[in-house]
Each structure stands twice: as C-alpha cells, then as structure tokens.
Amino acid sequence: KTQPLQHHNLLVCSVSGFYPGSIEVRWFRNDQEEKAGVVSTGLIQNGDWTFQTLVMLETVPQSGEVYICQVEHPSVTSPLTVQWRAQSESAQSKMLSGVGGFVLGLLFLGAGLFIYFRNQKGRSGLQPTGLLS
What we know:
The protein folds into two domains: 9-87, Immunoglobulin-like (Sandwich); 88-123. It has one helix spanning 89-123; strands spanning 9-18, 24-29, 32-34, 38-40, 44-45, 51-59, 66-72, 80-85. By secondary structure, the chain is of the alpha+beta class. A hairpin with a 5-residue loop joins β5 (44-45) and β6 (51-59). It is elongated, with a radius of gyration of 28 Å.
C-alpha cells in the first residue's frame, strides 16, 4: 500500500562535463517513463567545450515509489542511472530521531570528557603531604 507524502518534491538530475552535446536524460517512476512535470534547462555550455544540463521532475511521491534518472550519451556504452526511493513520513522521522539521538550522545560524551580532564588537571600538581623535619 502506498501513502502520499503530502508535499511536492523537486527531483533534480544534474549532468555536467560531457561532450559532445547530444544527450538524453529521462525520469522514470516505478519503471514507467514520466513526461508530465519534467522541466529541463536545455544544454548549457561550460566554456571549456563541455556541456551541462539539469532535468527536473516535480512530483508528489508515494511511499515506496522508486524514481530513476537515466542518462544516455555517446561516451557511455549503456545508460547511466541514479535511483531515489520515496520514504514514508514515519521512516523520515525515525531517521531524524536516530540522527538527533546520536548528536545528543556526542554532546554528552564531549561534556563528560571535558569535565573529567578539567578535574584531572587540578589534581596533577604536587600536593603537600606534611612537613618534613
């Protein structure tokens, strides 16, 4: 079952540094080519004889959907692909909770080490034990 993620996403496929300028960049959603919502900058010359382009897909992803940017160019024998998988809101919140917990743990570890070493520095000096006669 797929659930909408409730917000638009702009997926950007950036291809740069290629020559010659003939290139085909396509977006796929669950192995079906997407034509609606696709916008391209067209070819942009870099000034060093190479080109770049951005091909964007605006979509409202469903949880579990797989999006693929596919690039075909004469310099490669088979198409190059990059995949993006839509995550559910709960998966995103779990990931953010995990990252937040990790960062909080690092902060407590740093504070503990700071206090420990500060207390050690105070004890490292010679301390008188009594008078010698």
